[in-house]
């Protein structure tokens, strides 16, 4: 062959190599912290007690409207009754009490009582849901029979959905017996455990969604979803599940499978009928828009992208093929050459990248709350979410949804009386100083909401529940 041929071949090889995508760790521009930024007032509302000198590890605050009480939990087991004015905080139940025979595994930041939910009929005597509430928790006993097993890992602990039944729903403290276990999972790793458990607050009696419990379940942990669980429809990990806790047509006979679940209506070989949506990594929080019923989810990313996405029945949210809008390329980053390149996937509404100058090195999205009330006029018709470690708050427009990326998200700063606006972590550190404690290194932000439109900010560093005000 001629010398010219080999020279031509070399040129073609170099040109082809240049077209091969190189993973990036910076697929998104920095967050614009100025354009559209809002300042809202915040004040202390209530305090949860320390346990062993360590601040309450708050995860959730919910409004049980039938009994006119707010409830907030500590990941280590207690659930507290908080009065509507915040002046009274009493322990409703300690789910970690030895009486119940269910020891909570709360070691590390990610394990414990992940979520709890009151049945919409909790306060309605004579109904199937009277007195019933549910905890979605990590447990120490990892030798009990399980309903769902991973396809690898080391059985670090179990996660279980438990049903508690109060005899008197109006009682100041829980007066029922031990919980009934609905299902149990073997966790392959210590992270990415159960996320949110909630009933759709917009569903009314007689509607198809009334009394159905949505459960976020992480991909099982480690890094990169090593068993490809999130895309495996025969696997309960990396999914949002939907069940009827009062039904009995599940495989174990302890809960019901809703007839409208996507893989009941359109069966797929081997697909679990409990699945509502799939392809999620760590779906810590989700919420519904009161105006139109849209469901949003905050899914914690791997190394690069944090996202807020819409969730619909049967949706594939992409993980671990996609991380946000970009093809997942392992620990080296993401492939940014063809973002949103699969029409079969559901991609984020907003997303932001690790390493953003506004945030800590390790980030994790949290939230969510869709403001449709006038409790804080500046936030009306906005979807509020946040960054878990830094305690930064953000919003996007609920009626003009962004097309993805950081351009549609805007910063929200918090202002106390007479002070400069600042993020939550700064307020926590100020509180820590008053408590004679070391300043917190992270906020571990979570949200809670009341039926009257008030939004509460929770954290794991100072025991203080804060409320956004006019």
Describe the structure.
With 470 residues, this protein is mainly β. It folds into 2 domains: 26-52 and 344-470, no CATH class; 56-281, Neuraminidase. Helices cover 7% and strands 32% of the residues. The protein contains 3 helices and 27 strands. The protein has helices at residues 3-19, 262-265, 424-434; strands spanning 38-47, 58-64, 69-74, 78-82, 89-94, 113-118, 132-139, 157-165, 180-187, 194-199, 213-217, 239-243, 275-278, 283-288, 295-299, 305-311, 322-323, 326-328, 334-335, 350-353, 365-371, 382-387, 393-397, 410-415, 446-449, 455-458, 464-469. The chain has an 8-stranded mixed beta sheet with strand order 21-22-23-24-1-27-26-25, with no helix packed on it. A 4-stranded antiparallel beta sheet has the order 2-3-4-5, with no helix packed on it. A 4-stranded antiparallel beta sheet has the order 6-7-8-9, with no helix packed on it. A hairpin with a 2-residue loop joins β17 (322-323) and β18. The longest helix has 17 residues, at 3-19. It is globular and about 55 Å long. 50% of the residues are buried. The model is unreliable at 5-19 (pLDDT under 50).
Task: Please tag this protein with its features.
globular, 470 residues, eight-stranded mixed beta sheet, 7% helix, four-stranded antiparallel beta sheet, mainly beta, 3 helices
Helix and strand arrangement:
Blueprint: H1 3-19, E1 38-47, E2 58-64, E3 69-74, E4 78-82, E5 89-94, E6 113-118, E7 132-139, E8 157-165, E9 180-187, E10 194-199, E11 213-217, E12 239-243, H2 262-265, E13 275-278, E14 283-288, E15 295-299, E16 305-311, E17 322-323, E18 326-328, E19 334-335, E20 350-353, E21 365-371, E22 382-387, E23 393-397, E24 410-415, H3 424-434, E25 446-449, E26 455-458, E27 464-469
């Amino acid at each position: 062959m001629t010398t010219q041929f080999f020279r031509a071949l070399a040129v073609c090889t170099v040109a082809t190599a240049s077209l091969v995508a190189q993973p990036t760790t910076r697929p998104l521009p920095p967050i614009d912290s100025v354009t559209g930024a809002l300042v809202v007032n915040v004040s202390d509302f209530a305090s949860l007690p320390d346990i062993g000198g360590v601040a309450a590890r708050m995860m959730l605050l919910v409004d049980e409207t039938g009994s006119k009480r707010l409830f907030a939990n500590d990941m280590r087991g207690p659930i507290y009754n908080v009065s509507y004015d915040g002046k009274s905080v009493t322990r409703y139940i300690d789910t970690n009490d030895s009486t119940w025979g269910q020891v909570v595994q709360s070691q590390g930041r990610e394990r414990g009582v992940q979520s709890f939910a009151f049945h919409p009929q909790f306060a309605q005597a004579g109904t199937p849901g009277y007195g019933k509430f549910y905890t979605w928790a990590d447990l120490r006993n990892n030798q009990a029979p399980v309903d769902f097993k991973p396809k690898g890992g080391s059985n670090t602990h179990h996660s279980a959905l438990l049903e508690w039944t109060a005899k008197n729903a109006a009682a100041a403290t829980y007066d029922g017996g031990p919980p009934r276990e609905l299902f149990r999972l073997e966790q392959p790793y210590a992270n990415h455990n159960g996320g949110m458990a909630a009933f759709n607050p917009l569903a009314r009696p007689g509607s198809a969604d009334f009394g159905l419990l949505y459960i976020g379940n992480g991909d099982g942990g480690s890094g990169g979803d090593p068993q490809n669980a999130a895309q495996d429809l025969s696997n309960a990990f990396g999914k949002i599940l939907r069940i009827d806790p009062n039904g009995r047509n599940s495989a174990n006979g302890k809960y019901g499978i809703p007839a409208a679940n996507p893989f009941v209506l359109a069966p797929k070989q081997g697909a679990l009928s409990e699945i509502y949506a799939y392809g999620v990594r760590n779906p810590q929080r989700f919420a519904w828009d009161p105006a139109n019923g849209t469901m949003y989810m905050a899914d914690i990313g791997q190394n690069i992208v944090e996202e807020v996405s819409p969730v619909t029945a049967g949706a594939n949210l992409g993980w671990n093929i996609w991380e946000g809008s970009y093809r997942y390329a392992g620990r080296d980053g993401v492939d940014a050459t063809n973002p949103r390149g699969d029409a079969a996937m559901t991609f984020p509404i907003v997303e932001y990248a690790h390493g953003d100058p506004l945030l800590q090195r390790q980030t994790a999205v949290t939230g969510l709350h869709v403001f449709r009330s006038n409790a804080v006029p500046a936030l009306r018709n906005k979807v509020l979410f946040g960054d878990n470690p830094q305690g930064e708050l953000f919003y996007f427009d609920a009626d003009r949804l962004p097309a993805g990326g950081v351009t549609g998200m805007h910063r929200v700063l918090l202002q106390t009386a007479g002070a400069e606006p600042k993020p939550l972590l700064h307020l926590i550190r100020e509180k820590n100083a008053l408590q004679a404690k070391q300043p917190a290194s992270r906020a571990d932000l979570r949200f809670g909401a009341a039926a009257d439109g008030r939004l509460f900010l929770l954290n794991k560093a100072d025991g203080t529940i804060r409320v956004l005000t006019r």
